[in-house]
Amino acid sequence: MNINDGGRRRFEDNEHTLRIYPGTISEGTIYCPIPARKNSTAAEVIDSLINRLHLDKTKCYVLAEVKEFGGEEWILNPTDCPVQRMMLWPRMALENRLSGEDYRFLLREKNLDGSIHYGSLQSWLRVTEERRRMMERGFLPQPQQKDFDDLCSLPDLNEKTLLENLRNRFKHEKIYTYVGSILIVINPFKFLPIYNPKYVKMYDNHQLGKLEPHIYAVADVAYHAMLQRKKNQCIVISGESGSGKTQSTNFLIHHLTALSQKGFASGVEQIILGAGPVLEAFGNAKTAHNNNSSRFGKFIQVNYQETGTVLGAYVEKYLLEKSRLVYQEHNERNYHVFYYLLAGASEEERLAFHLKQPEEYHYLNQITKKPLRQSWDDYCYDSEPDCFSVEGEDLRHDFERLQLAMEMVGFLPKTRRQIFSLLSAILHLGNICYKKKTYRDDSIDICNPEVLPIVSELLE
């Protein structure tokens, strides 16, 4: 994926290059570069592809966004804008670096019934089901069971056998294990290719426990139980910091909306997942154990019609760790958005919001005391790490990504400007110093009154 000026310039309506991978649709073509603008639709990109690759115009094609190649897949609607979705990708994906974060656009063929053609998927599912039936009837030997996919099936259940079973499964990249209807997930801290459309179809309308444990199975059971019993269903995700709660939530939302929309990314799903960069910026922070820890709880309510189609959604945030604004523990940071703003703001914004370097703010410099930098460009990433930086982080790109995400979610330019002004005011408020008035115990003076006009201007 190539973008003009390396993705560092503020996102404007200039021309970008989309790399589209046609796969088996066009043998011998690894990818096809297609020029597009911010408002170019998926339908326009597909028309360009058909002409460039001389494809059969009688067939119907769709564009698929694959996050971490071989993993999650979203089918774009004809009116979706691929460039806007591309700009929400992480910096590593935009710069074409070889990493675990491999994001691509694929060209897919659409069947007459509206489903997506995935080649040999149906035959693969048919063979897998036939092998299972043969084993049940005794015609094929049962595989030697070295681990149990349900801890309730352990012949000897104690702490040692439980942990050993989880460890053995984890070594074979089986991160999911059941405890009855409860799903245990062990964060692999790497991508596993078990979230593509093959798995969406495989777990569709299957009883829990019939197939290998998977988060899609939990989502599928809740979805069909809701339709059959006509009652609300609830899925609770809990765990320690860094255990993968946020990513698991994304997988659940993706599968629930895929069941409803037959693979097409609905507007509801796009808003929920597209709001991710906004929620992360204002609610996530670096902690001692996790560089991107969510410091708030989240309740997502997805509403359906009786037919099973997504009608709308509501996201409620609660228990935000507000104390982090004024104090952070050792080797921890304040919320991401402050660092994004200080690193990514333009010169005009720096003057308008009276922005300084992070070391000059009491709310950001409580842990690490280092010589002041003249600018963010002066920072040497090979030097001793401090509380202002995270390895592999590009704050300027993250600020651009945040701006675009806020625009897509619906924040107007005036509202965004007011929010950034408020953020700067919070930082300046932290710099106000106080002292007791002489001969009076019930009142105080401000030591640095020059800060007050700045705060007053920012808060209007």
Automatic annotation (TrEMBL):
Keyword Repressor attached: no
Domain spans labelled Ras-associating: 14-112
Alphabetical list of PROSITE patterns matching this protein: MYOSIN_MOTOR, RA
Residues where ATP binds: 239-246
Keywords from the named record: Actin-binding, ATP-binding, Coiled coil, Cytoplasm, Membrane, Motor protein, Myosin, Nucleotide-binding, Synapse
InterPro entries for this protein: Kinesin_motor_dom_sf, Myo9, Myosin_head_motor_dom-like, P-loop_NTPase, RA_dom, RA_Myosin-IXa, Ubiquitin-like_domsf
Principal place of residence: cytoplasm
The keyword Signal appears for this protein: no
Record CDD domains: RA_Myosin-IXa
Segments forming domain Myosin motor: 146-460
Localization, UniProt: Cytoplasm; Membrane; Synapse
Family statement: Belongs to the TRAFAC class myosin-kinesin ATPase superfamily. Myosin family.
Protein name: Unconventional myosin-IXa-like
Organism: Vulpes vulpes (Red fox)
